[in-house]
Amino acid sequence: MKTGKEVLEQALRLLGYTNHTGDIDAVRDAELFKSGSAKVRQIYYELQRIEHPDDIDTDFNMTKELKLSSITIEDVMPYGVAMLIAQSDGNYNSQTLFAQLYNQKRSSVPKPVARVKDVIPRGGC
Fold first, then answer.
1. Which domain holds residue 78?
2. Is 22 left (phi over 0), alpha (psi -120 to 50) or beta?
3. Model pLDDT, residue 74
4. What element of type H or E holds 48?
5. pTM above 0.90?
């Protein structure tokens, strides 16, 4: 999984929005795909601020490769997107479940290493 489209499809699978073969029906769920892209964008920017606070990618596209670690894309993003989709659908049981999972998994997002600067004044003329 590398693109926003793939994250959205995984979120829909997690929610059980699939046909009898387990596939996403893009025609039947066209409205979910339309509204889902905004939800993917929202979660993407939120996670990007955690993982790359100084390098925010504002050129989001659902088919473009996301600039996040594979851990974040595959194991965190789908849960956040599923949470927002369930919330907008009024599916409060799923929304609560995915909110808990997303918040728990969000702590595993890689953070930048803090660099310590030596700012102690040294003697000298």
1. 4-106
2. left
3. 96
4. helix 30-51
5. no
Q: 50-103: per-residue pLDDT in tens?
A: 999 888 888 899 999 999 999 999 999 999 999 999 999 899 999 999 999 999
How many residues does the structure list for the chain? 125
Domain count, the chain: 1
Answer whether residue 87 is part of any domain.
yes
Is residue 100 left, alpha or beta, with left meaning phi > 0 and alpha meaning psi from -120 to 50? alpha
Quick one: how many helices (H) and strands (E) in the chain?
5, 0
In a domain, 123, yes or no: no
Q: Is residue 121 part of a domain?
A: no
Side-chain-facing half-sphere of 101: CA atoms under 13 Å: 19
Give the span between the Cα atoms of 116 and 16, in whole angstroms.
Answer: 46
